[in-house]
Structures are given as structure tokens and as C-alpha cells.
Task: structure prediction
Amino acid sequence: MRHAALLHALAKVGLFTGLFLGSGLISVAYAANADDALAVSVDDFYYRDTSNEPTDQTAVHEKRLRAFMTALRDDVTADRRFELVPSSCGPNCPTDGPALRDRLRAASQAGAQILIIGGFHKMSTLVQFAQTVAIDTASQRVVFRKYFQFRGDNDEAWQRAERFVSEEVRDRLLESRSPQ
Result:
């Protein structure tokens, strides 16, 4: 399975401990009206590079990941259908931070209805995978998870990926909020 390495990496850092990982979109009924902004917190994503390229690109990947996370949060903030709740997690959260259950509790206490987590895995010089998971903080159930594949490892490729991921995440969150 081509995503097995990414799932293994997420499991290794404890992102899915104790969660129900059903397939596809899980309908979540929110008590809020459709006109109310959905409160969302976005934790920093992790980055894993197994491309075995000869040049150490750690610094440039960290820079691009920070830019990606900033742009993703800016997109959520700019969309009036959402309210961005600051993450209680620091930059080391995806790997060395608190357990996911504690992160969900902290996000809920801060007012977030949804916690978004995820990560990137660079498989080769040109191929990267990203996984984004949105979790309902009250029920601790996955609202959706989505795998993305993008080509390229330059600023332009990362910016295109961010725009696509951001739009997809916001659309899926709104779908999950609609009565089924």
C-alpha cells in the first residue's frame, strides 16, 4: 500500500492513539447553527524525509513547512465560516508533544470544535504525500482524513499544495457540518 509508510509514521508519533478511524467521511452533527462559525484549531504538521537525497534539506523543509502552516491558518482565519482557535501545541507537538488525547482536551477547553493534525512524507526527489486529519474534539472521532500527493519540492509546489489542501479541508469540514 503506497500510504502504508505515512500511516506507520503517524502511528509512530502517536497521532491516532485511541481514535476511531472509520473510512470515508463520518457525519458529525454540530449543535451550532449553519450560520455560526466553526471553531477550528490547527496543530503544526510533522515532516519526514525518506528520499535519501545527498543534500541535507532539513532547514529548507522546516521553512516551507512553517510557511505552509502559516498560510493554512491564514486561510482558515480569512474564511468567515470558520473561527481559528490558537493551537495549544508548540512546534515540537507532532513528534514530542503531548499525547493526542491531551491535545484534543486542550483544544476543546480553548473552544475548538475541530482539531486538525497532519504530516508530510517526502518519498523521493519529486513526490511528497500529505495527510490531513480533522477530529471532533468533543467525541474524539475522526471527521475526515484525506491523503494528498504533490509533485515538486520548491516554494511554488508547496504553495500550490497549501492552496489545494486548505480548500479541500474547509470544504470537507463544511460537508461534515451539513445534516446528512
Observations:
- Strands lie at 38-42, 46-49, 82-84, 114-122, 127-136, 141-151.
- Confidence is low (pLDDT under 50) at residues 1-33.
- Helices lie at 4-12, 58-78, 93-96, 100-109, 155-177.
